[in-house]
């Protein structure tokens, strides 16, 4: 395995994120010229922390399925938008530009995000062509394009069903401005260039209502973007893998009904 830590974010923003790589080495015994998809993971944490439960354990699951994995520990509050987004875009740039070195399929760079990390992943999904990103990173927009999104109980909307604290942590005082909030309501920003998406949520999520995933899925449908949505009937927020591996110390996080999401996402990736 190739395990490295790379600082991402470019020279034109104030803070750097840390990109951790988990790349499978090619072997002369097993298709030595193989190009693997890579899953770039954005853990949740309400834009005030980066959750360990939604980080390396998820990376290990994608590794076990034969995919490369990378993990972004991005800047959170009091650092404000768009620094985390620039860090994620720079991470995609790094992966695509180093495709030959690491055996990455440059047409299968998939973002996986949980909760607020889902908002971050979806943000690059809808904003990757914005001029400010390519300008800040001194590259072309196509280099920053994700090829797919895997969104676990994502924060999406700043409207009626918003997780307000995520937007306050992301925007600071700017969260008082309707225009700024509206820009971060990602169901309003979906466009035909948004990549295909896999979403899952629980109908009983008390923190980030299931309407967040429903609104994003409906927007993808309106723009004819391929999408798959799974709604589980039970389960709280922040389940991660929903098994013992990612169980919190207080016992929360095991939800047998939801454990299938990682297999479903792996199957979905085969069609990207």
Automatic annotation (TrEMBL):
Domain BD-FAE-like: 31-220
Entries under InterPro entries matching the protein: AB_hydrolase_fold (IPR029058), BD-FAE-like_dom (IPR049492), GDXG_lipolytic_enzyme (IPR050300)
Pfam families, per database record: BD-FAE
Transmembrane segments: none
Keywords: Hydrolase
GO molecular function, one term: hydrolase activity
Name of the protein this chain belongs to: Alpha/beta hydrolase
């Amino acid at each position: 395995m190739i395990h490295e830590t790379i600082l991402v974010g470019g020279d034109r923003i104030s803070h750097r994120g840390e990109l951790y790589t988990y790349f499978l080495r090619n072997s002369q015994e097993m298709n030595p010229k193989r190009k693997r998809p890579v899953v770039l993971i954005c853990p949740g944490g309400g834009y005030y922390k980066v959750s360990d439960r939604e980080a390396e354990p998820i990376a290990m699951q994608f590794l076990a399925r034969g995919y490369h994995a990378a993990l972004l520990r991005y800047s959170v509050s009091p650092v404000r938008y768009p620094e985390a987004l620039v860090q994620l875009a720079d991470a995609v740039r790094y992966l695509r530009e180093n495709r030959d070195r690491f055996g990455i399929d440059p047409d299968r760079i998939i973002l996986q995000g949980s909760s607020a990390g889902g908002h971050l992943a979806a943000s690059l999904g809808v904003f990757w062509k914005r001029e400010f990103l390519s300008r800040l990173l001194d590259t072309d927009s196509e280099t920053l394009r994700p090829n797919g999104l895997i969104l676990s109980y994502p924060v999406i909307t700043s409207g009626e069903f918003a997780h307000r604290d995520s937007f306050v942590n992301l925007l600071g005082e700017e969260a008082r401005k309707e225009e700024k909030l509206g820009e971060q309501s990602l169901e309003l920003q979906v466009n035909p260039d948004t990549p295909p998406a896999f979403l899952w949520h629980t109908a009983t999520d008390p923190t980030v209502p299931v309407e967040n995933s429903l609104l994003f899925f409906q927007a993808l449908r309106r723009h004819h973007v391929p999408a798959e949505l799974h709604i589980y009937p039970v389960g709280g927020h922040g389940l991660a893998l929903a098994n013992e591996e990612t169980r919190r110390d207080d016992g929360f996080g095991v939800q047998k009904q939801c454990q299938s999401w990682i297999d479903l996402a792996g199957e979905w990736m085969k069609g990207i």
